[in-house]
Specification:
CATH architecture: Alpha-Beta Barrel
Number of helices: 16
Number of strands: 9
CATH topology: TIM Barrel
Structural class: alpha/beta
Largest sheet: 6 strands, parallel
Number of domains: 1
CATH superfamily: Metal-dependent hydrolases
Distance between the termini: 11 Å
Radius of gyration: 19 Å
Helix content: 40-55%
Length: 346
């Protein structure tokens, strides 16, 4: 029987003191009086507070739905790389990553960390390398979340295929960890953060990779494009045709040794389409529970983000389900194997 590994979880239920501290940090950007009193040490969260925030939320749903392990990162909309400068982002990333590390220690074998990066618009990505190093070597994290648009909806950075990003890729390859391509909150009023900005970014990231040759430069680099790949599976013929017109190889060899999609698709027809179009070798189980879509579907009576139900109902063989639930995660996130073994979850 497969372990059910959810590769897309965020700490959306962190104690309210975290948000209160963040509001003070943001106020301090333009208010010297607030800045003079801002201290990281003022954020005091007990283990009991952290534990309760998980027990009553993510862990409750994981147990109810039969999910064994979640790869857990800071709340995506809270990353907000566009706020302040690099120092603001660096401090905020360190705080949020340390909290996810505490969750992983309080619930060993159930939560495994993935890092938020201290990205800031226009700032050289090499400034993210120390946080990656700390999170992997000290915290045991197995992935990072990489935003292709730290400007918050205005797309001011070079495409992901540009050499500007290479310092991050070099570190990911060194540690053999993937990047989940995940934007944060949007400050462009044209786009709803989770309804359009996230899905636009997923689609844009895939197209950027299609038009370039990034994986010739980094043949072992791995990207996870969440939310089912945005528009990609639905318009697979368009992307295949565009690759052909651009003189690129077939997508299977051009991109699909390096790009993977998750199952954060919140209805049965969407999951059915995903696995019909995309090879099961490129699909990883995920739910992003207590995330963007938290309600109950009135047509089914179950939560939209209870994605395991869709996988169980899909026309998949036992071997295909094993790949989606566990096998592919162990290959794309190889550092989880040691962690699971140490936790007795072989």
């Amino acid at each position: 029987m497969s372990l059910i590994i959810d590769i897309h979880g965020h700490y959306t239920t962190a104690p309210k003191a975290l948000e209160a501290w963040r509001k003070k940090q943001i106020a301090a950007i333009d208010d010297p009086a607030v800045a003079a009193t801002l201290k990281v040490s003022d954020l005091q969260l007990s283990d009991d507070e952290v534990r309760e925030s998980i027990l009553a939320n993510q862990l409750k749903f994981m147990d109810e739905r039969g999910v064994d392990v979640t790869i857990f990162s800071p709340r995506a909309s809270f990353m907000a790389h566009h706020i302040g400068d690099f120092q603001v982002s660096s401090t905020w990333a360190a705080i949020c990553n340390e909290l996810c590390y505490r969750v992983s220690k309080l619930f060993p074998g159930r939560f495994i960390g993935a890092a938020m990066l201290p990205q800031s618009p226009g700032v050289d990505p090499k400034t993210c390398v120390p946080e990656i190093k700390k999170c992997v070597e000290e915290y045991g994290f197995v992935a990072v979340n990489l935003s292709p648009d730290p400007s918050g909806g205005f797309w001011k950075e070079p495409p992901l295929t540009d050499k500007w990003w290479f310092p991050i890729y070099e570190k990911l390859v060194e540690y053999d960890i993937p990047a989940m391509i995940h934007v944060s909150s949007c400050c462009n009023p044209c786009f709803h953060t989770t309804g359009s900005h996230y899905l636009n970014a997923d689609t844009t990231a895939f197209m950027q990779c299609l038009t370039g040759d990034l994986f010739k430069e980094f043949p072992t680099l791995k990207f996870v494009i969440p939310h089912g790949g945005g528009a990609v599976p639905y318009h697979w013929g368009r992307f295949r045709g565009l690759a052909q017109e651009l003189g690129k190889p077939l997508l299977d060899s051009h991109l699909m040794n390096n790009i993977f999609f998750d199952t954060c698709v919140y209805h049965q027809p969407g999951i059915d389409l995903l696995h019909k179009v995309i090879s099961v070798d490129n699909i990883l189980f995920a739910s992003e529970m207590i995330g963007a879509v938290r309600g109950i579907d009135p047509t089914t009576g179950f939560h939209y983000d209870d994605t395991k139900r869709y996988i169980e109902a899909a026309n998949l063989t036992a071997d295909e389900r094993h790949k989606i639930y566990e096998g592919n995660a162990r290959k794309v996130y190889p550092r989880i194997n040691k962690i699971l073994k140490e936790a007795g979850r072989v």
